[in-house]
């Protein structure tokens, strides 16, 4: 697991699952449909991403395609953090 995925997974486990790592399977299909993150949780996740990875998440990017799985979040962060670092 990459460092970005580990950071995101740790945040989700600590903030939404109260440290219960077993409640977040490695192959979780959907954080939203699975009831792990709700609409308020998405906003908390966005704030974490912005603070941790140093870029602003555009309102138009707050969609399930970018934020519904750890894999999708890590991909989104990887694409945007590298762009922010180059600027």
TrEMBL record:
Domain Carrier, residue spans: 3-81
One Pfam family linked to the record: PP-binding
PROSITE patterns, per the entry: CARRIER
SUPFAM superfamilies: ACP-like (SSF47336)
Superkingdom: Bacteria
Protein name: Acyl carrier protein
Organism expressing this protein natively: Rhizobium aquaticum
Classification of source organism: Bacteria, Pseudomonadati, Pseudomonadota, Alphaproteobacteria, Hyphomicrobiales
């Amino acid at each position: 697991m990459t460092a970005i995925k580990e950071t995101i997974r740790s945040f989700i486990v600590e903030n939404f699952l109260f440290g219960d790592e077993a409640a977040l399977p490695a192959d979780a299909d959907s954080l939203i449909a699975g009831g792990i993150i709700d609409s308020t949780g998405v906003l908390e996740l966005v704030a974490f991403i912005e603070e941790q990875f140093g870029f602003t998440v555009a309102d138009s990017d707050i969609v399930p395609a970018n934020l519904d799985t750890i894999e999708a979040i890590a991909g989104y962060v990887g694409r945007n953090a590298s762009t922010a670092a180059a600027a």
